[in-house]
Amino acid sequence: QVVADSQGSDTGTILRVRGPLEFTCQLDSTDAALMHKVISRTFQTLHSQVKSESCVLTICDSPIIIWPNRGVHATPEEISPDTLCEDLHQWIQTDEQESAGKRSAKKKNKKSSAVNVINLRLMMEVTKTGPVSAPILSKTVQKSHFLSTTLPIDCVIRTTCNETIKDAFERLLVALTHQLCEMEKVTLQHMKGTSLVKPEPLHFLLPEPKGLVTVVYPAGVPDSQLETQRKELHQQFELPDNWPYFRRANAYHFPSEPYKDGYLRNPHLFLTHPTLENGKVYLVQGIYSYHHYMQDHMDDNGWGCAYRSLQTICSWFQQQGYTERPVPTHKEIQQALVDVGDKQASFVGSRQWIGSIEVQAVLNQLLEVTSKIMFVSQGSELASKGRELANHFLTEGTPIMIGGGVLAHTILGVAWSETTGQIRYLILDPHYTGAEDLQVITDKGWCGWKGPEFWDQTAYYNLCLPQRPKTI
């Protein structure tokens, strides 16, 4: 159920092929062995199509068409089998090119160029040159099961910077046929009677040097029923069994694809780290959404900052695959506090503040996540907490909610020098009321590095440090 990409993930270009392959077959018997034979034969037909001269790959947003099984023949004619993969980029019309001059791109995602993806479409030629024979129609009356579905091919390989399209597309075809084999296994393994379960390819970015890996899961089968497969994958790739790498929520998100919910992800990645003498940077691990005032048609300006910080933390647990529960609304947060006996029923629908202790209670009630609470009697003491905060981001990697006075913030990391004691805090500010504009948010410091003077030196603070469940 797995396809590993052998190339390292820090160089070259990703070639990603997507396209529907129509799977149709007729079952004349409900005998399981016979049905499996027919399905396997149908997959063999699809293999033959992918290996035939009719197989065509088009590069999205470009005029390039490639016939991989005709000696990597391509149009336009300037492209030959010896063309380097990275030279294909110049043919692709990007949104940035279209909008150049219309807006300033001076702070265009600094890291967006780190991953170059060339999107391709898998197609099949249905017409052939030469004489055309007249169609022959025949009619047979019999009872049978007709199975029809569309296989969502989604295949990736990573190329090296000096690789030709001839070499890369040969590897791509091998990966395509391998993915069909994996789809066949999943289809046969999860078939119930005469109903098919659609195979679903997902890509996962594993720690170096493993890189991108593709796994085929049965669509519609929940993660809770796939734990055995995930354990096998963890053993295969020698991954620890206390961190979810292969849940659907962990699937790799390609940079060019927008998130459907509209929230910004990980705005801190576009910031420059502070440099401290002998200092190291310790950051949140994984992906979170930025939740702040006035989102979701909710006017919580002036009272909802801790709710928003809690939503950011919940989004982290959701997007790391620890929970399938959606990020809770303000009312759901308030109801959870009523349910645990922390608040009266009248609290639901109110505009009352919450703090770190309430955040701890809600995480436990809704996500079954435990948290440590760090008490700081005055803001000036926070500067001495570098070791504890650094250790939290190293071992747990979750966002921290900090509340003091009437303000709540989210801490996403620290830069700390063990020798000098210097410290900077990476703050995500829930008090922002504007649109999801990454440039404004990073330029104006709504997500930014702050010094010890950021905290009220005389106010007391409570920090809620969520603990990561040890699970796969």
Describe what this molecule looks like in 3D.
The chain has 472 residues and is an alpha+beta fold. Helices cover 24% and strands 24% of the residues. The strands form three sheets. Strands 10, 11, 12, 13, 14, 15 and 16 form a seven-stranded antiparallel β-sheet that branches. A six-stranded mixed β-sheet has the order 5-4-3-6-2-7, with helices on one face. Helix 1 (32-51) runs antiparallel to helix 3. The longest helix has 25 residues, at 165-189.
Layout of strands and helices, then pairs:
Blueprint: E1 2-4, E2 13-27, H1 32-51, E3 55-59, E4 65-67, E5 73-75, H2 95-99, E6 116-124, E7 145-158, H3 165-189, E8 199-206, E9 211-218, H4 227-236, E10 279-283, H5 305-319, H6 330-339, H7 356-367, E11 371-376, H8 386-395, E12 400-404, E13 407-417, E14 423-428, H9 438-443, E15 447-450, E16 461-466
Parallel strand pairs: 2-6
Antiparallel strand pairs: 1-9, 2-7, 3-4, 3-6, 4-5, 8-9, 10-13, 11-16, 12-13, 12-16, 13-14, 14-15
Helix pairs in contact: 1-3, 5-7, 6-7
Query: Span between N and C termini?
Result: 17 Å
Question: How many strands appear in the DSSP assignment?
Answer: 16
Biggest β-sheet, characterized? 7 strands, antiparallel
How confident overall, as mean pLDDT? 90
Helix count equals 9
* Element-by-element helix/strand order: EEHEEEHEEHEEHEHHHEHEEEHEE
Measured by DSSP, the beta-strand proportion falls in 15-25%
Cα-atom Rg, whole angstroms? 27 Å
Percent in helix = 10-25%
- Protein structure class: alpha+beta
What is the chains' assembly state?
single chain
- Low-confidence spans: 3-10, 96-113
**In one word, what is the shape?**
elongated
